[in-house]
Give the backbone structure.
Amino acid sequence: MKVILGTLISYSLKLRDQHGVSIVGRVKRGLPPPAVSAFTNISPLLISAITITVVSLCLNISVTKMFARKYDYKVRSNQELLAYGLGNISSSFFQCYPSSGSLSRSMVQGESGGKTSLIGGFSSVILAAVILVLSPLLESLPMPCLAGIIIVNLKGLLLKVTDFTYYYRISMMEAVSRMSNSETSYHSNISFSIQ
């Protein structure tokens, strides 16, 4: 609803032209055709690929464990690894970014009431419809609207800054480590989600 209202207001009031508000801009319709990348590019990318894989897997498992505690279910790490591996292999043919657990997207789904994997399938169908049919309608969507949606849904995590005193009582190094890691992951998740 916020996306629809934001887009309508931005389009009707010409927020970009008259007020300089940043908008999404041109959105290509459809999916790119499947293609196999040239294997000659593998050697210069190998170290980066391994690094992205390790960081992505750690992020995925940590997000999964956080939601497992919240919704009381058991995490099967092998199943998670297989799912992400198959997802990344299939998406590589469509020039996609490496898939990873998105803390902001998971929080949006959780706060919206989605507690099962069925919400992922439902989101995928909606996303496919938008990509294949409705993408030109999103060109006037203001970036502050997207930022607001993400920040509102991350407020619970951002309020965990108050946990600093708890961790400080355990160990000052633990507190500093947790806060710096949290700040880095929040910033990278939010900025990547908005862009």
In short: The chain is about 70% helix and 0% strand. The chain has one domain: 2-146. Confidence is low (pLDDT under 50) at residues 190-195.
